[in-house]
Structures are given as C-alpha cells and as structure tokens.
Amino acid sequence: MIGKEKLPLEEYDMNVRQFFSHWDEVRDGLEKMLISLETNDLDVRPSNDAMTIGDILRHIAGAEVHWIQKVIMANWETNARFSREDYPSKKEILKLLKLTHLPTIKLLDSMSIDDLERVHTNQGGERFTVFWVLWHTLEHEIHHKGQIFRDLRILGHPARDTYGP
C-alpha cells in the first residue's frame, strides 16, 4: 500500500482544506498563465516527442479526475481523458480545469484530518491513503506547471510574474 505510514496529523489544528491550501495558489498561477497565453501557444510542441502545452493542461485535468473522482470518490465511470478536439481553446481548457478542480475543493472542504488516513483501492487492486493521493495529485500539477513554464521560456516568452522568478 502506498502511503501506509502513520501521519502525526493530530498535531495539526486545521482542516484538510487549510492543510492543502497551497493548491489554491498553484491552481491560480496555472490559470493565470493559461489566460496570458496566445491562442497558438497551446499547440506548441517544444520538441517532436513532447506534449503540447494544451496537452499538458488537459493531462493535469485528467489526472486530477482520475485520482480524486475515481480513486477517492470511487466514481469509476467518470471520464478522465480530455482531447484537443473537445477542449481546443484557452477558454475551454480554463473551464475544464475549473470544473475538474471543483470536486477536489468540495472534497477538501468536507474532510477531517482523520479522513486523510483512509485507504482506497484502485481498479488494479493497489491501495492508497487519501493523504498520498491528494499529495501526489498536487505534486503532479506542480511538476507539469513547471514543465509548461520551462517550455514557455524556451519558446522565448518573457519571465513574467505569472511564471515566477
């Protein structure tokens, strides 16, 4: 089981949303970056074998749906694959990111710190603590946000406040 270690969560005098509050900042930066892009930036591929920036953004949404809505909420029929054909524009991708993040926010708001130690099993039989799934999903988003910012800099975009220092 991944995340089987016992967490000293009783030390924290906060709710789960507060515990994962950095996610709000990460998502806000991702959305600001998306809004700042030129439309054709979504289809830029920094190298022949790389995902486009649009693909990465749709992948972030899909991974969040997979881990939060499927693994934690057990909504196995929920679609976690989002194509360029269905979400081709900045406006549609921004809407997708907001819609796929809303269940995560509601989940975080509804959970107690003790809920983080609950164990869920995926369809392959692997077991994960809620804490591990949440942390992994946030870490995944941060990883790809950094990847996008790197790609934008390689493409000659100026290092704006949105992209960090």
- Provide the structure class: mainly alpha
Q: N- to C-terminal separation?
A: 38 Å
Major sheet: arrangement of strands? 1-2
**Helix-strand topology string:** HHHHEEH
The residue fraction in helices comes out at 40-55%
Shape: globular
- Largest sheet features: 2 strands, antiparallel
Mean pLDDT: 89
How many individual domains? Answer: 1
CATH superfamily: dinb family like domain
Q: In CATH terms, what is the fold-level topology?
A: Four Helix Bundle (Hemerythrin (Met), subunit A)
Helix run count: 5
- The CATH architecture can be given as Up-down Bundle
CATH top level is Mainly Alpha
Rg, please?
17 Å
Q: Write down how many β-strands occur, each being a DSSP E stretch of 2 or more residues.
A: 2
What proportion of the residues form beta strands (DSSP E)? Answer: under 5%
Low-confidence stretches: none
Short overview:
The protein has a single domain (9-163), classed as Four Helix Bundle (Hemerythrin (Met), subunit A) (Up-down Bundle), CATH 1.20.120. The protein is built from 5 helices and 2 strands, in the order ααααββα.
